[in-house]
């Protein structure tokens, strides 16, 4: 996470309503879900489950897209539809122009070579070295021994563990095992890389390193990456687009910076609360009261380089208010500066009401926290 300067050149970004993207509106989609539902039938006395319903969205070619949801939201079903391990009950899944949900047999196996998969618990074969684990999909695909050796060497260097060529999984750390898993997923030069909770078993420092590696792979190879996760911190660090699942439905989607500054659905808001929190400086919290006072305290979300400075200047110019900045936090999310500003608005309740109406007009998410003397 990078800090953004509050003194950068003004570039105020006005938030726009977040809409769930129609699959048909993405002409250059790498993955397209069209009218998808997935129902698992009753089994051994257990009732059937509607895992997905009404899924229509697209993932742009070359993008990094996060798919986030709680346990049971439908994430695992979604990823298994992308790689053809499951068939939809209704609708179709189109990957790089091919209806993968209609493929079977050899055609499906060939299509699956263009879709790499990274797993939460690595799924490495303990009896094979790092190099041999990476080589496995190439052996299955019928590559020659010479080509396999060259490709494995290339991949070990790409993921930063060239010195672990002959090490077995038991001799590797969790981060090193996941690097082997990433290299194996890239072995057949896929166009899509699916990351299914790939950092959930790793410590925070290793997680950051793995996410940096995935960002580099996306940048260098142009691979479309789909992050399946329940951690908004992973989405914040790596993804540019995010799709929020809840109970088998897409409840919100859009650019990560838009979602962070203007979450609409309660499940999205709960994810964001876990990442950003609602903490204020202790010195400020001790001063805030709920009885109207001389200065109202308003928290507002902004996006864009210098947006905080520009917002304060516009409030002064358009509403004639001498606004004070009480607290600020600026992060880089989805490649854009995103900030949470706490403002002191002079003029009491009436000035606060005018300010909130102005912010609402320009679609800045804002809330009144109270008052200070």
Quick recap:
This protein is an alpha/beta fold and 373 residues long. The chain has helices at 75-82, 105-112, 130-140, 145-158, 174-186, 204-221, 232-238, 256-261, 266-276, 282-285, 307-319, 348-361; strands at 29-40, 49-60, 64-68, 90-95, 98-99, 115-118, 192-196, 224-229, 241-246, 249-255, 295-303, 324-333, 336-346, 366-372. A hairpin with a 2-residue loop joins β4 and β5.
Description:
There is one protein chain. The protein is built from 12 helices and 14 strands. α3 (130-140) crosses α4, α4 packs across α5 (174-186) and α5 runs parallel beside α6. 34% of the residues lie in helices and 27% in strands. The strands form 3 sheets. It has a 6-stranded mixed beta sheet, sandwiched between helices. By secondary structure, it is α/β, with parallel strands linked by helices.
Radius of gyration: 24 Å
Question: Which oligomerization state do the chains in this entry correspond to?
Answer: single chain
Strand order in the sheet with the most strands = 6-7-8-3-9-10
Distance between the termini: 35 Å
How would a textbook summarize the main sheet?
A: 6 strands, mixed
DSSP, total strands: 14
Helix percent reads: 25-40%
Please write the string of helix (H) and strand (E) elements. Answer: EEEHEEHEHHHEHEHEEHHHEHEEHE
Structural class: alpha/beta
Question: Strand portion, in percent?
Answer: 25-35%
Shape: elongated
- The low-pLDDT segments are 1-21
Number of helices: 12
The overall pLDDT, averaged over residues, is 86
């Amino acid at each position: 996470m990078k800090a953004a300067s509050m003194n950068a050149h003004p570039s105020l970004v006005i938030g726009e309503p977040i809409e769930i993207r129609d699959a048909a509106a993405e002409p250059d989609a790498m993955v397209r879900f069209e009218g998808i539902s997935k129902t698992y039938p009753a089994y051994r006395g257990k009732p059937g489950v509607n895992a997905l319903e009404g899924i229509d969205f697209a993932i742009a070619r070359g993008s990094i897209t996060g798919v986030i949801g709680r346990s049971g939201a439908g994430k695992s079903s979604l990823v298994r539809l992308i790689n053809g391990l499951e068939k939809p009950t209704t609708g179709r899944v189109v990957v790089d122009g091919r209806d993968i949900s209609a493929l079977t047999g050899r055609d499906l196996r060939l299509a699956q070579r263009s879709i790499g998969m990274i797993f939460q618990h690595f799924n490495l074969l303990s009896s094979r070295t790092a190099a041999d684990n990476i080589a496995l999909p190439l052996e299955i695909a019928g590559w020659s021994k010479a080509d396999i050796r060259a490709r494995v060497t290339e991949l070990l260097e790409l993921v930063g563990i060239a010195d672990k060529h002959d090490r077995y999984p038991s001799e590797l750390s969790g981060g090193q095992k996941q690097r082997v898993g990433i290299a194996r997923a890239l072995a057949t030069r896929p166009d899509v890389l699916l990351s299914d909770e790939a950092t959930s078993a790793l410590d925070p420092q290793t997680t950051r390193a793995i996410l940096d590696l995935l960002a580099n792979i996306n940048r260098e190879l142009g691979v479309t990456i789909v992050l399946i996760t329940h951690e908004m911190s992973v989405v914040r660090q790596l993804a540019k687009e995010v799709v929020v699942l809840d109970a088998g439905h897409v409840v919100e989607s859009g650019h990560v910076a838009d979602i962070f500054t203007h979450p609409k659905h309660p499940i999205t808001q709960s994810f964001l609360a876990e990442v950003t929190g609602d903490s204020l400086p202790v010195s400020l919290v001790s001063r805030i009261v709920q009885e109207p006072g001389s200065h109202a305290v308003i928290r507002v979300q902004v996006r864009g380089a210098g947006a905080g400075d520009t917002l304060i200047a516009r409030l002064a110019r358009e509403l004639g208010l001498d606004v004070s900045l009480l607290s600020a936090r600026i992060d880089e999310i989805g490649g854009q500066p995103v900030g949470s500003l706490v403002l002191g608005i002079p003029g009491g309740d009436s000035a606060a009401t005018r300010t909130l109406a102005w912010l609402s007009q320009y679609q800045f998410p804002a809330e009144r926290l109270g008052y200070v003397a």
